[in-house]
Amino acid sequence: MARGAADRGTDAPTGRAGDRIAAVRTVGDMQARYRSARRGPARCGRGDRKDPGADDATMATVAIAKRTAVLQARTIVDLALELADGRSSVRSPLERAHRDVRGGPFHPLTPEATLDLPGSMRLEEVRTS
To answer: For 40-56, how does the pLDDT look when each residue is reduced to its tens digit (9 = 90+)?
Structure first.
């Protein structure tokens, strides 16, 4: 989702693209956020073990990585729309990326609900130590 938005947002920038420095920085910001969003989920389950299993710690790590990816994707879409001068109102790949990213936070949990698991786990660690 984030990659589609980053790619489509740079296809034919208008508006802010008139200011080349602002356009270059916006595209750079989108690329940095995309790399960050992609790296987290790809590495979240690896850790020290070959097979991380499906324990609470692994689930918390996956949930945090998913949350980070969704929030970064949302920001990338917003930046792409800004760079494209809001042209997602017509049928386009950017519009599809925008719609897909907006639905991402609800599968399977919202980004805020995702924080419950790692937060509860950490508080339990502190309580029992």
So the answer is: 766 665 555 566 677 88
For 86, left (φ over 0), alpha (ψ -120 to 50), or beta? left
pLDDT tens for 56-79 read 888 888 888 888 888 888 898 888
* d(C-alpha 22, C-alpha 38), whole Å: 24
Q: At what angle do helices 56-83 and 116-128 cross, to 10 degrees?
A: 140
Tokens, residue 23:
């356009």
Beta strand extents in 45-123 (DSSP E only): none
CA distance 87 to 14: 9
Residue 82 exposed, middle or buried by CB count within 10 Å (0-12, 13-18, 19+): middle
Structural domains of the chain, ranges and CATH numbers in brackets = 2-128 (1.20.140)
The CA-atom distances, in angstroms, between 55 and each of 45, 64, 83, 108, 124 are: 11, 14, 42, 17, 15
CB burial class (10 A; 0-12, 13-18, 19+) of residue 77? buried
Q: What letter represents residue 78's amino acid? A: D
